[in-house]
């Protein structure tokens, strides 16, 4: 594999059968080139021909040192580490997916390899074809696709963070979100009327639970027709008026501090007289079959056609619809059901079109788009979520790995924590947008040389902040083992510790900013009290950054912001916290500054001053520090012992002893096993045939993502088969 010393390699350079050329920046190489790139920001960076007849790589193995660990492969359920796995990238709707389900909603033909010495290498198979990523052989990456494709390598570099920054230079950084998008967002399927939406909003404020956004699912539409509202034709029949005046609804929500996000699906109902269908047919925008007729599929409205977002004219057509849709009171847009298996980039290009339409509507507002389907590069246009998951412990545990690749009082505590951390989170998003550094990373990023950290799945990093969660039923975070990276990691909280809340650690040498626990982002003022949490390193030093701007718009690209670099340093018996550097045209407001100097085990010293001035903290004696730490430990234990776990089983009135569980129950009969969630009458999540490993998911069968013919594997989009339950005769596993 080529390394940094290959900077002088020129076009037509060869390594065995591999033809490669350095591109973009030091340490990045392209092997072969064929089809245009949809993931790179500048396709010229990737598509300059190496030779006149590019080599087609249908199956490409890459050999790395023994002991290499593999990650990446995009949105796939299962463990964080992908070593020993085989993954298929093909966007698929997978309701109720399990740990072994694949493919899922997004396709990222990307592997991050962590070498035994802690260095990292990234490998991108830049193909929009269905692609198999085979990591089953030790230290070997193999990509298999049905057509030729280029392979781009990033590194080896000193750390995985450097690899991901280099990747972002090729495919783009995450879009800068509006600040309100970092607040809590209330979403479910679905609210049936604007009256119910108002009730939800009022209840949040009444109970003092922070929230910034309420989401509207498909039931706001007229017969599930996109870009319409269910405005009753008979206004004198009140119960038929579900969303009669969306602008009035959103005004009421905005007055309470809420934003409104609305669903838009790609399936457009085949119906003459429906303005979206008529204009799309006139402009010839639909995905077509081989014979030239529009492809028709069944979605919520019934028979639907789908825009062909690979065409620029179609993206412009959709963007124009979005532009006209926003004045109805649309703050954000939710793109769902956008993984039709016609091509993997459908979801990304739909999100791009939606993003561009929102910018057309108001160039002074940052678009917020959420997409279920995507391709590598989607982060430039939209956020993503983990799809149609289920409210149980198994899906909670899987969610951490997937993102990396709760009782009312506990919810209130958790959300207040989130809102206190928003200044830190917003700064992380700014860094991600400007430099390509990830907002959220696996724990091993703090120490890539430690193999034992590479399989940890119940913790993650937000910059220097380590978050340890409990994703195991009936086990609080205080009862689980917390393996920490090397160096100093100091636990802290906000006097709000609870067994069902994550444990927080700050890395020595770090400073993070906090804000007040507002009810919504709009309550925050530039002059609010600012808090800095400080954890000194072995040398008695620490540093951190705070980014501040309007929270929306693009003035920050013209210098309209304040970026403050804070440092802390221990000098004999005092710790001095001060501003070391500032950037941007904004002037610092007159505001109070609180410093929380962590001592260990939750103990801390608090000091107040004015932001911009020196804050001096006198350090207590070693004996006093020991007493503070001991007192803090006792208080922490008392707080946890007096707290109650969120119940996993809820009693229901009715039959004596009746109970409903939110946890999936396994039922077994012979060679068959079924997972059922008894909650709300019961729902079968999956059925599995133990001898063969075949798994049925929510009324269809998934055969490991491939079909078999005469004992030979032929990669395909997977196959499915409808089924019905005709008899129930199961017993609990183990009985």
From TrEMBL:
Single Gene Ontology MF annotation: carbohydrate binding
Domain annotation Glycoside hydrolase family 31 TIM barrel: ranges: 175-406
Occurrences of domain Glycosyl hydrolase family 31 C-terminal (ranges): 436-512
Name of one Pfam family that matches: DUF5110
InterPro entries for the chain: DUF5110, Gal_mutarotase_sf_dom, GH, Glyco_hydro_31_AS, Glyco_hydro_31_C, Glyco_hydro_31_N_dom, Glyco_hydro_31_TIM, Glyco_hydro_b
UniProt-listed GO biological process terms: carbohydrate metabolic process
Residues in DUF5110 domain copies: 530-598
Residue stretches in coiled coil: none
Glycoside hydrolase family 31 N-terminal domain: residues covered: 57-134
Entry keywords, A to Z: Glycosidase, Hydrolase
Keyword Hydrolase in annotation: yes
Family of this protein: Belongs to the glycosyl hydrolase 31 family.
Protein name: Glycoside hydrolase family 31 N-terminal domain-containing protein
Organism listed in the record: Hevea brasiliensis (Para rubber tree)
